[in-house]
Amino acid sequence: MIATVPAFDRMGEENAFAVLARATALANEGRDIINLGIGQPDFKTPEHIVEAAIKALRDGHHGYTPATGLLATREAVARRTLSTTGVEVSPENVMIMPGGKPTMYAAIVMFGEPGSEILYPDPGFPIYRSMIEFTGATPIPVPIREETGFAFSAEETLSLITPKTRLLILNSPANPTGGITPRAEIEKLVKGLADHPHVAIMSDEIYDVMTYDGEKHTSLLEFPEIRDRLIVLNGWSKTWAMTGWRMGWSIWPNGLYDKVRKLAVNCWSCVNAPSQFAGIAAIDGPQDAVDEMMAAFDQRRKLVVDGLRALPGIDCATPKGAFYAFPNVKETGWPAKKLAAALLDEAGVALIGGPDFGILGEGYIRLSYANSAENIERALERIGDFLSR
User: Fold this and answer.
1) Exposure of 244 by Cβ count < 10 A (0-12 exposed, 13-18 middle, 19+ buried)?
2) Does Transferase show up as a keyword for this record (predicted)?
3) What is the pTM (predicted TM-score) of this model?
4) CA 26, CA 195: separation in Å to the nearest integer?
5) CA distances from 191 to 76, 225, 310 (A)
6) Which of 31, 71, 83, 195 could form a cystine bridge with 26, CB 3.0-4.6 A?
7) Going from the N-terminus, what domains does the chain have, and what CATH number goes with each?
8) What values do phi and psi take at 35, rounded to 5?
């Protein structure tokens, strides 16, 4: 057998795709499967966005684009950032990416190496830890606890920083918990980071507009004192139901921008041209479809929380953002991953076990309510029947 370098043996993966593959296989066998596992809106990309891509193709935009992205696309991101955060950013600090994960990859490989430490949320998006381990750096989990509303604690986060810490990863609104960290806690963190100027920050803000009950997202861009070491991850996938378009953006400080440009040249050359025109149309066009999608998510969120709380052995904190619930299943007596596997195989409901998101995910499962209310009601009924048996 041909041997690869050890880094590839350290690499993990995102189990949501493994569950998707299993659910698809069962469906192909004729099983009725309800997939509440994958974090993908069940809405179509709005028509004016699709038409912008078609027009771009018909207009002959078939070639390479700059590694950093089309200037017009970067300018659109700068406009959108100003409208959502009140912060003016230069298009020369905006990088158009083929999805959100390349920003994670770029930030982590820039700072991760043997002997360094990178802090990341636990439970959190599994690719954070996977890529940290790939680089040989030591992953340091930042606990995200139900009792704090699944928000990080500034005091606890700061206490984990050492001279070896190179990068701090933050995520709010959060996957998998739906938690939002309050502005006061973020302000406390930023103040404390003044004592740790050697630490870079990557803020994953992909769910920035997905908030409920009057909650407001606080962008790390709003704090000029950390702008020279801040990387912000965002994109089109969730807000405009464009997961398959593979379109993301990130905002980089001057000292890191050319490094990520070089990485793009080496890894993916550029982002495809027609998708970038679609991205401009998404940002500058009507937002009615976004508002309608969020109204539907809010209705489903309430349906999910009430339905889960009515099930034996399950409690569920009300998610404040994104489109995930992270119910506590400890009282069912089931280990979380075994419960998720059994629900798929025996009840036909695809969910993700909490341990797939970190050590502190045990006792929880993730449920995506980016599916129809009808399917959610059917899934809750099946889960209830299974637990009753």
Assistant:
1) exposed
2) yes
3) 0.96
4) 53
5) 31, 9, 42
6) 31
7) 7-44+288-388 (3.90.1150.10), 63-284 (3.40.640.10)
8) -100, 105
DSSP 54-112: HHHHHTT--S---TT--HHHHHHHHHHHHHHHS----GGGEEEESSSHHHHHHHHHHH-
| CA distance linking residue 135 with residue 129, whole number of Å | 10
What phi and psi, each to the nearest 5 degrees, are found at residue 169? -105, 130
d(C-alpha 85, C-alpha 208), whole Å = 10
DSSP string computed for 101-159: HHHHHHHHHHH--TT-EEEEEES--HHHHHHHHHHTPEEEEEE--GGGTS---HHHHHH
Q: Where are the beta strands (DSSP E) in the chain?
A: 34-35, 94-97, 117-122, 138-143, 165-171, 200-204, 230-235, 248-251, 324-325, 349-350, 352-353, 365-368
Burial letters for 103-117: b for 16+ Cβ neighbours within 10 Å, e otherwise? bbbbbbbbbbeeebb
How does residue 205 score in pLDDT terms, banded at 50, 70 and 90? very high
Report whether 87 contacts 81 (CB < 8 A): yes
User: Could you tell me if 134 and 111 are in contact, meaning their C-beta atoms sit under 8 angstroms apart?
Assistant: no
Q: Which two tokens stand for residue 260?
A: 């990520």
Q: Quick check: 249 and 76 in contact, CB under 8 A? A: no
Least confident of 8-22, 121-135, 165-179: 8-22
pLDDT tens-digit map of 316-375: 999 999 999 999 999 999 999 999 999 999 999 999 999 999 999 999 999 999 999 999
DSSP 8-state symbol, 328:
B
- DSSP H stretches of helix in 310-372: 336-342
Sheet hosting strand 138-143, strand order edge to edge = 94-97, 248-251, 230-235, 200-204, 165-171, 117-122, 138-143
329: Cβ contacts below 8 Å, ≥ 6 apart:
313, 314, 336, 339, 363, 364, 365
Cα maximum dimension of the chain: 60
Length of the chain: 389
Tokens of 323: 């489109």
Return the amino acid letter for 91. Answer: P
What are the residues facing 96 on neighbouring strands? 249
